[in-house]
Amino acid sequence: MATAAPTEALLERLGSTRRRSEEMVAGLEPEDLGLQGMADASPPKWHLGHTTWFFETFLLRPHLPGYTPADSRWGYLFNSYYDAIGARHPRPERGLLSRPVIAEVIAWRRRVDAGLTALLERLGKESGPEAEPLLELLELGLQHEQQHQELLLMDLLDGFSRNPLEPAAWAGGAGPEAGYGPSQVAGPLRWLAGPAGLVEIGHPANGGGFHFDNEAPRHRVWLEPYAIANRLVRNGDYATFIADGGYQRPELWLSEGWAAALAEGWQAPRYWRGSGPASGWEWEFSLAGRRPLHPEAPVRHLSWFEADAYARWAGARLPSEAEWEAVACAEELQAGADGCGERIAEVDGLLWQWTASPYRPYPGFQPAAGAVGEYNGKFMSSQMVLRGGSFLTPAQHARPTYRNFFPPGNRWMASGLRLARDAS
Predict the structure, then answer these.
(1) CA distance 181 to 184
(2) Residues 219, 98 share a domain
(3) How far is the C-alpha of 390 from the C-alpha of 372, rounded, in Å?
(4) Helix%, strand%, coil% for the chain, nearest 5
(5) Across the 424 residues of the chain, what is the mean pLDDT of every consecutive 10-residue run?
């Protein structure tokens, strides 16, 4: 994890990142801040507390002399999954935490922000090797907070979607929903030949910039000839799949996915609304409330099982994460592969894209030492990889080597799909 010296720019980025989390909830009501719609989600207040706990636990308590931490019991409330740190409150019960109240959480954030500023200013006066690990921890904390900013929005959407009043977190299409809309990729779907043979993927050791530990080490992978779609699958495409009995044809589904679809009553993507399969789907629920379902917008909030079934119905498949990254990083394809490479965060609907790859360690992967080593490595089981980024992803947070991951049955994330196929 490469990081920069503690400059004024770093202090500004710390401040802007921390402020952004609070700005995201500024228009919500107090009742919204404790909302937890399902066991996989967390209330907005908990996200604000957890990201603050992270900085306090890993940076301020051990490295800032004289710092006065919060009530020791808060560590139990806001620890997420760091078993090496200690016990934690059950995740499905985070919505029951009416205390501490939001004012106390915000005051805590202010104390931690002041402590981080003091720590950075002290590091700025030092020039020894002991400063580098602390700067790396700070960078990890900033990236961690950006992850939770995206999770907060997806969790809020889930919670609001369960209210029959269908409230809007941002009315009138303002806020994050302004980044989602019809695809900017014109024309019918085109197939682009991807780099084949022996390719390298993963973050380069000397590549510069931040990366999570699960993005490394860079290694070689053999790819047989393949092609990848120049755009994401759209709502109109997916509606055709539904009309053709996509949710009633077990031959299109893996056994576990078919069982999940039946048990959960899946008939369409997570937030589609309307009369149902017989009469069609005219709406979708969003952070801006109920909105017309646009046929040219990329289909979103799909599980891996649904994405895989659609790909099979379309006579295609999902790309492996190595194929996806090879295309994303191929300069010669940048001009023709809309939505790939560094432009992935600028076009084509901005959705995380399911791949065919299980979330497993790269050859030679070594988690970081200590409790922060639990950040990614401990989840390398029963999850599938998503690539790219979404319209909810903070600016400059996504990159071609980023490995997002979720269980195959989850569909509350801003997830879509891009097709691939073997070369003929």
Answers:
(1) 9
(2) no
(3) 25
(4) 40, 15, 45
(5) 64 96 96 98 98 98 96 97 94 97 98 96 79 91 97 98 96 84 85 94 88 95 96 95 97 98 98 83 95 95 98 98 92 42 47 97 90 83 95 90 96 97 90
pTM above 0.90, yes or no: yes
Cis-peptide, bond into residue 217, ω within 30° of zero:
yes
Sequence-ordered list of residues with C-beta below 8 angstroms from that of 73, at least 6 positions apart, any chain: none
Q: Which of 121, 145, 167 is the last residue of a domain?
A: 167
- Whether 94 and 52 map to the same domain: the answer is yes
Number of domains within the chain: 2
- Please identify which residue in the block is written with the tokens 């492996």: 320
Give the three-class secondary structure for 313: helix
* d(C-alpha 369, C-alpha 374), whole Å: 9
Sorted by sequence, the CB contacts under 8 Å of residue 302 that are 6+ apart come out as 269, 270, 310, 354, 411, 415, 416, 417
Element spanning 192, H or E: strand 191-193
* 262 and 123 fall within a common domain: no
219, 163: one domain: no
Contact criterion met (CB below 8 Å) for 102 and 45: yes
- Same domain (yes/no): 240, 148: no
How many CB atoms sit inside 10 A of residue 120's CB?
Answer: 20
Residue 260 in any domain: the answer is yes
Handedness of CA 30, 31, 37, 40 (dihedral sign): positive
Nearby residues of 166 by Cβ (< 8 Å), 6 or more positions away: 160, 285, 289, 290
Name the residue type at position 243.
Answer: A
Dist CA 133 CA 129 (whole Å): 8
Handedness of CA 383, 190, 192, 335 (dihedral sign): negative
Residue 167 confidence (pLDDT): 96
Same domain, 232 and 112: no
Owning domain of residue 109: 8-167
Nearest to 390 by CA among 160, 172, 168, 177: 177
